[in-house]
Design brief:
rod-shaped; mainly alpha
Length: 143
């Protein structure tokens, strides 16, 4: 019965590990998308700043519009950077959880091996076809 319980716990640990791995993969995909967006907005903001510096005689309305656009892009860059840091933290936590689950699964696997070894040892001792072990057990008995 203990062996069945160990198998059940190990299977649960493996399922949790797979779940964490899927979550990590999903978060990494999200992270890659955010990094691409961040690169785009950083280059866009840099271009807008460059354009603002390069045009000395620009109408005030157009100048104000570009400044607002630069501010919006910089705000968006900040938001993306925050989201990236949050995702990196979440990935780190999930990786730690996965590592703990792997360690638990390894312990359960080792306990299962020990259980299987002890069952095999018992089978060897009580196997009637194995004359040597049967005689050894019989000689240990007092008649």
């Amino acid at each position: 019965m203990a062996e069945a319980e160990l198998h059940k716990e190990r299977l649960q640990a493996l399922a949790e590990k797979r779940k964490r791995q899927a979550e990590i993969e999903d978060k990494r995909r999200q992270l890659d998308e955010l990094v691409l967006q961040l690169q785009h907005f950083k280059s866009k903001a840099m271009r807008e700043r460059w354009l603002l510096q390069g045009t000395p005689a620009m109408p005030q309305e157009e100048d104000e519009g570009r400044r607002k656009q630069v501010e919006q892009d910089e705000l968006h860059v900040k938001t993306l950077e925050d989201a990236i840091h949050r995702l990196e933290s979440e990935i780190c936590l999930l990786e730690n959880e996965e590592s703990q689950i792997s360690a638990k699964e390894q312990v359960l696997r080792e306990r299962l091996r020990e259980t299987e070894r002890s069952i095999e040892d018992l089978q060897k001792v009580y196997d009637p076809h194995n004359r040597r072990t049967h005689d050894t057990v019989a000689s240990d008995c007092v008649w």
